[in-house]
Amino acid sequence: MAGCAARAPPGSEARLSLAAFLLGALVLALPLLTRAGLQDHTGLALYVAGLSALLLLLYRPPRYQRAVRACFLGFVFGCGVLLSFSQSSGNHFGWYMCSLSLFHYSEYLVTAVNNPKSLSLDSFLLNHSVEYTVAALSSWIEFTLENIFWPELKQITWLSATGLLMVVFGERLRKAAMSTAGSSFNHVVQNEKSETHPLVTSGVYAWFRHPSYVGWFYWSIGTQVVLCNPICGVSYTLTVWCFFRDRTEEEEISLIHFFGDEYLEYKKRVPTGLPFIKGVKVEL
């Protein structure tokens, strides 16, 4: 996988990414520049130019590639905070920007801390799949069009707040699953069992067999509730349900192969956590 960081000193990749993320988030200081007499677009252009130069000065490949992604996500987060507190009809989109950027950055950060051997540029999940990119673009287009023609639809604060709670719940659950699994967690379904790979059944895994999928399921749907996107809300629900149904069955075939009766007993005791998804059927 590109950009592997397995040989880096312990914790160095986490510190690098956090520093870069915070540099990007300093866009929050933009209002101070405008108060100093600069116009919004001038202040933003100066900030982006200075930030780009600083990253080039501080980092060399492959660290630069990791730093620039973390910095970009921090920048999106900072812009999201600014938009959230604006008086525009798109302030709930700011909530979404914060949710999206934190999700992708924390995927990398938690992997860097808990499973650095599997860390790579792909750990940001920014290039997850073509389908994921199309889904994100579709939600932005729907929000923009509905905000133009039906702006009142985007100002249902209680609905957006409900979506934000779903996002927070899903994000916390997924990261708890990643932390509990530690080095056993991987973004790619494994077809070969590592000698150091135990069956994790404690913590959130005592509640759900697939807590990371449950978290992502509710997080993804929650983002569309935040945006008050009725079309993408329904399509996201159907799409991610089908995706995790297939993904769960694929993963459980490997887990049964790895752990045999131990996993089958665990499977009997603990549900998947995903609505109407029971996992792979086992013929006795």
From TrEMBL:
It catalyses: [protein]-C-terminal S-[(2E,6E)-farnesyl]-L-cysteine + S-adenosyl-L-methionine = [protein]-C-terminal S-[(2E,6E)-farnesyl]-L-cysteine methyl ester + S-adenosyl-L-homocysteine. Its EC number is 2.1.1.100. The keyword S-adenosyl-L-methionine applies. It comes from the Eukaryota. GO terms for biological process: methylation. Its main location: endoplasmic reticulum. It is found in: Endoplasmic reticulum membrane. Belongs to the class VI-like SAM-binding methyltransferase superfamily. Isoprenylcysteine carboxyl methyltransferase family. This is Protein-S-isoprenylcysteine O-methyltransferase. It comes from Physeter macrocephalus (Sperm whale). GO terms for molecular function: protein C-terminal S-isoprenylcysteine carboxyl O-methyltransferase activity. Keywords: Endoplasmic reticulum, Membrane, Methyltransferase, S-adenosyl-L-methionine, Transferase, Transmembrane, Transmembrane helix. InterPro entries: ICMT_MeTrfase, PPMT_MeTrfase. Pfam families: ICMT (PF04140). The chain crosses the membrane at residues 16-38, 44-60, 67-87. It is a multi-pass membrane protein. One of its GO terms (cellular component) is endoplasmic reticulum membrane.
